[in-house]
Write a structure and sequence with these properties.
With 325 residues, the protein is an alpha+beta fold. It has three domains: 147 residues, no CATH class; 82 residues, no CATH class; 68 residues, no CATH class. The chain is built from eleven helices and eight strands. A four-stranded mixed β-sheet has the order 1-4-2-3. The chain has a four-stranded antiparallel β-sheet with strand order 5-6-7-8, with helices on one face. α2 crosses α3, α6 runs antiparallel to α7 and α7 packs across α8. It is globular and about 60 Å long.
Amino acid sequence: MAKRYPEPRAFEAVIDRIVFERPGARDDLPSVVSITPSTKVNELYVGIHQLDFSKNAKSGYFPHMASLTMAMKNIIYTNFDPFREPLQVQFAENPTRAVENFSVGYLDGFTKGLCCQGIVALLDSLEWPQEDLDSDDLCPLILSLRYFRAQYRHQDNPSEFIYDSLRLGQETAEKQAPSALEFLGQFRKAIELMKKNSGRQVPLAQCLGACIADYNRDTIHRKFKVDSWKRKIIHNLLKSPAEMVDLLAAHYDDHRHTSSGQAAPKLLKQASSEFASRCTLPYFLSTAVRNHLHYAAVFSPMSTCRHCHIHVFLSRSSSRLLRII
């Protein structure tokens, strides 16, 4: 959508035309937030035109396409329910505290908000006739996208918004846990903030360790903490080239990351025997890397994804990504 609407005002006009020109669109419309709250708010309302649709709305990455596809299908079939699960939002810094259009970011709920905006953008790109938009089949769906119930947790320390986002992503039962890329994006932001506030050069490993300690300190459930295994994944991703990160993102677009680590031992055995004869320095990763990365037969400098069976040639530094055990 960012490519189709490089100017937010263009998308604002599309929302007005497709959503708010429908019969009854402004009836029973709650008052949406206009001023950034200074305290915790358990219930507020955010308009569809206020939500940021750029990749920086949350972690610096868009939700994976596999998750977006599933969520959008559910919304289209059953209409959107703004009261089922509130968004967890954060507000852009503004000296006037005014909430501008497309400035409200997410701690949780980015997939849901982006799907709702994506439906509007899709109707615009298909040039759907106005009379069809008012049909009994389509109009209720469009009207359900007008606003979102949300919650806001005020934090004086900007880093706490980042850590809250990761905790919420794991504690909410209706969605899958954050992927390796979400951990990467959030801890990268936390590290940048720490370096900016320290005013001096701090080694990456030291910064990451301090950020993880801050995150774990207020994380109650042990299974949601970042342990040494997850820390290795995050550290390797931080040091990996952009091409490797893009490769992992493309894979998550096709396969839900929560099931990407479940491979049959038979496939692993076949992969090991099939490729070992071709490589001079075989390194076989036969232990589960749980739900964040994948079972794979890894050889320097070649990696094989067990899902799509694509042979990816990597540099020696980027092949460290899967060598985490």
